[in-house]
């Protein structure tokens, strides 16, 4: 069955998705029009995109023998139209952002776990998609590691700008995953659903035993109430959690970037957002713009309701995963307290993180944050680059990164060459080049890693 041309329509961001990726998945599913069509199509797509390991692979990609011509043509069009960076991309700013990410290293990972991801789960509809897919309560570790598998390729040197990088390739894979989720939940192309075009549903299409994909297809979706799944509002909001919330977290820790560096970091992630299919109008260029947009999208998203509310379960699963990496029982609530410090009180309430914490843990946390900020303020008058807060956050980030992301028994799902580069980068983060030797030794003790030798 050939795909029917789709009407061009305008509407609120909740009713706008990603025409390029959605049309690609619709054409692919239509090419496998049978009771098992969606799952056969997904299998073919997974096989083909597995060969997209570097940005150079996108330009030279050719379909595997036996790939249906309609599917091959849809993927070729997707790569042709989706892999180019926007004409407003500034390679100098992107390179600066890459350098900043590498310099912040373990701090970046700590903020990912305790700021970006928690804020990401605040929107009820976004949390509802994850809840429907069982992606945090049952597969928290998988979901977090999948996020890291996109962030590292994007922010490593040349990830977005060189043929040897892998950022564009990884983002285009994620973009197709989003489109697949939308198609399975809605059982059709989102544009057709919004336009009110009905398509006959094959009654036997649902197949048992297909795991996540079968779950998504079986649950259905109320578009009138929730908008489209993974819509433009949710995509833009998620992007803000990766750049604005990260930068805001640095301010909360007392180690912010300079204003021009913040804008470079926002710019690099906006370029990534373009490749991911986010509309340019939803990408802020400055921290002031980002703050305003973040507040607007969060307030707008909170007006949606989802019963029962999945957010406390999702937040609890994330905190439990982090607590499991902390050996001392009295410190297992630290991730909750750090998240409450980095995020707003409303976010803590949304995720059910405002419950009472034991007095000893609370006192220890306040003392840690208070003492580090006081020491930083005092010592920086003599040594401007010094930051005890940076050291403590790096120690937290090290435990989370090494234990949860870099476990050799469960490597990130990345091409071997790229995985080796990530491993090398993480090991290079063990020593903070901005800190004196004694600070690195103290950080090693806090993080529980081998001590530096003279």
UniProtKB/TrEMBL annotation:
Signal peptide location: none
Gene Ontology terms for molecular function: oxidoreductase activity
Segments forming domain ER-bound oxygenase mpaB/mpaB'/Rubber oxygenase catalytic: 137-371
One Pfam family named in its UniProt record: MPAB_Lcp_cat
Protein name: DUF2236 domain-containing protein
Lineage, top ranks: Bacteria, Pseudomonadati, Pseudomonadota, Betaproteobacteria, Burkholderiales
């Amino acid at each position: 069955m050939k795909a029917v041309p789709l009407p061009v329509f305008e509407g609120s961001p909740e009713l706008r998705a990603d025409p390029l990726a959605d049309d690609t998945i619709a054409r692919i599913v239509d090419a496998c029009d049978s009771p098992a069509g969606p799952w056969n199509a997904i299998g073919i797509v997974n096989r083909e995109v597995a060969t997209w390991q570097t940005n150079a692979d996108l330009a030279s990609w050719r379909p595997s023998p036996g790939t249906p011509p309609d599917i091959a043509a849809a993927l070729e069009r997707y790569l042709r139209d989706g892999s180019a960076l926007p004409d407003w991309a500034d390679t100098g700013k992107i390179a600066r952002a890459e350098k900043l990410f590498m310099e912040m290293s373990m701090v970046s990972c700590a903020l990912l776990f305790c700021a970006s991801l928690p804020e990401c789960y605040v929107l009820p509809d976004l949390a509802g998609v994850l809840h429907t897919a069982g992606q945090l309560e049952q597969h928290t570790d998988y979901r977090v590691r999948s996020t890291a598998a996109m962030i590292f390729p994007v922010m490593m040197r040349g990830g977005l700008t060189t043929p040897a990088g892998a950022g564009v390739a990884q983002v285009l894979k994620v973009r197709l995953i989003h489109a697949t989720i939308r198609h399975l939940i809605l059982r059709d192309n989102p544009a057709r659903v919004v336009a009110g075009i009905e398509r006959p549903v094959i009654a036997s299409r649902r197949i048992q035993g297909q795991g996540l994909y079968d779950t998504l297809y079986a649950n259905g979706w109320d578009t009138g109430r929730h908008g489209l799944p993974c819509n433009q509002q949710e995509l833009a909001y998620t992007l803000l959690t990766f750049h604005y919330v990260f930068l805001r977290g640095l301010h909360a820790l007392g180690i912010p970037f300079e204003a021009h560096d913040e804008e470079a970091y926002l710019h690099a992630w906006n370029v990534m957002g373009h490749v991911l299919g986010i509309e340019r109008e939803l990408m802020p260029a400055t921290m002031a713009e980002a703050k305003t947009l973040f507040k607007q999208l969060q307030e707008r998203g909170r007006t949606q309701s989802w019963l029962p509310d999945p957010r406390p379960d999702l937040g609890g699963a994330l905190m439990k995963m982090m607590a499991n990496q902390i050996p001392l029982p009295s410190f297992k609530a630290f991730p909750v307290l750090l998240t409450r410090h980095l995020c707003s009180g409303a976010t803590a309430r949304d995720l059910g993180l405002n419950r009472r914490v034991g007095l000893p843990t609370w006192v220890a946390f306040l003392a840690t944050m208070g003492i580090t900020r006081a020491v930083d303020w005092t010592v920086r008058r003599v040594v401007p680059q010094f930051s005890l807060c940076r050291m403590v956050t790096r120690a937290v980030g090290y435990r989370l990164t090494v234990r949860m992301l870099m476990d050799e028994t469960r490597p990130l799902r990345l091409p071997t060459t790229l995985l080796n580069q990530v491993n090398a980068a993480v090991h290079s983060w063990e020593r903070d080049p901005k800190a004196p030797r004694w600070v690195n030794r103290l950080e090693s003790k806090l993080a529980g890693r081998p001590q530096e030798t003279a």
